[in-house]
Design brief:
The chain has about 120 residues and is of the alpha+beta class. It has helices at about 5-15, 90-115; strands at about 20-25, 30-35, 35-45, 45-50, 70, 75-80, 80-85.
Amino acid sequence: MVASQGFAEFLREQLAPLGRVTLRRMFGKTGVFCDQVMFAVVAEDRLYFRVDDHNRAGFKEAEASPPLSYEKKGQVIDLSFWRVPERLLDEPDELLTWARSALAAARRIAVKRMSPRRA
C-alpha cells in the first residue's frame, strides 16, 4: 500500500532539510527520493530507510522489525530497507540523522551500480 496523503506530507516536511524530497508510487509502495536518489520506502504508512554495511551498526535499533522484503520463486529477497522505529517520527532531529545516514547509503549503492565492473 502506498503512503497516505497525510503521511506523505509529514515526510516531506520532516525531511525537507535534506534537499529536494519527492515521493513516487512504485510497485505498490512509495519511494522516497532526495535529489533523485531513493533512500527510503513507505509501505502501509511505515517508513523504511536504506541500509548498507556502513550504516547497519547505527541502525541496530531497527533490527527488531523485519526488513522490507518480497518473495520470488519461494525465496525471500531482502531489499536492504529497515523499518524506522516509530519513536523517531516524534523526534525530528534524530529522524534527520537516520535519514542522512540512509541517504549516504543510497548514494554509495548508486555509485557502486554505476561504476564499470572489472573483469
